[in-house]
């Protein structure tokens, strides 16, 4: 089996209760929008280049495991509706059960930013955060919106 082919899905359980989880239409809309804005096809390309193993995830996400490149430096990252990690989802969620909720929020951000414009906007937000706080997440509007602690980031220092 080629590395980019889908592997059988292991049970991940429900990631968390959500009003949206009872109505699949918002997730379908996001999935279609992220295909049309080219962010999910770009994410699938990144996954293939990184030789990640893909499987369907909850609420329209595609989960990729064992992504090989060391960039970006992150426990997990999202491109469109594709969520990638160099590890495996079972062990990540055992350590941080809310990580997938954090990454799913990024998939909504890709949709709101109309796809690929998310990249320069995210880089600018990361630069702003580094200038303001010395780290890439504390003042990054995208990471704050996704929930810093859910993503495994430390909360911003209080002054």
List keywords for this structure.
about 160 residues; alpha+beta; four-stranded mixed sheet; globular; disordered N terminus
Write a structural description.
It is a single chain. This protein has 159 residues and is an alpha+beta fold. It has a domain at 21-114. The chain is built from 6 helices and 4 strands. The protein has helices at 25-36, 39-49, 89-95, 99-112, 118-133, 141-146; strands at residues 53-56, 62-65, 76-79, 82-85. The protein has a 4-stranded mixed sheet with strand order 1-2-4-3. A hairpin with a 2-residue loop joins strand 3 and strand 4. It is globular and about 40 Å long. The N and C termini lie far apart (53 Å). Residues 1-20 have low confidence and may be disordered.
Structural class: alpha+beta
Basic shape: globular
Beta strands, count: 4
SSE topology string: HHEEEEHHHH
How many separate helices?
6
Multimerization state = single chain
Q: How is the main sheet built?
A: 4 strands, mixed
Distance between the termini: 53 Å
Low-confidence regions: 1-20
């Amino acid at each position: 089996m080629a590395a980019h082919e889908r592997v059988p899905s292991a049970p991940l359980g429900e990631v968390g209760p959500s009003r949206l989880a009872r109505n699949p239409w918002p997730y379908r809309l996001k999935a279609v929008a992220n295909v049309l804005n080219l962010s999910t096809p770009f994410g699938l390309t990144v996954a293939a280049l990184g030789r990640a193993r893909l499987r369907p995830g909850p609420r329209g996400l595609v989960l990729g495991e064992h992504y090989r490149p060391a960039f970006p430096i992150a426990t997990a990252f999202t491109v469109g509706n594709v969520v990638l990690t160099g590890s495996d989802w079972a062990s990540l969620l055992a350590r941080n059960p809310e990580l997938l909720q954090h990454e799913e929020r990024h998939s909504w951000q890709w949709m709101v930013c109309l796809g690929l414009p998310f990249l320069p906007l995210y880089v600018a937000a990361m630069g702003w955060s580094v200038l303001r706080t010395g780290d890439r997440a504390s003042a990054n509007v995208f990471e704050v919106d996704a929930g810093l602690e859910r993503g495994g980031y430390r909360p911003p220092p209080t002054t």
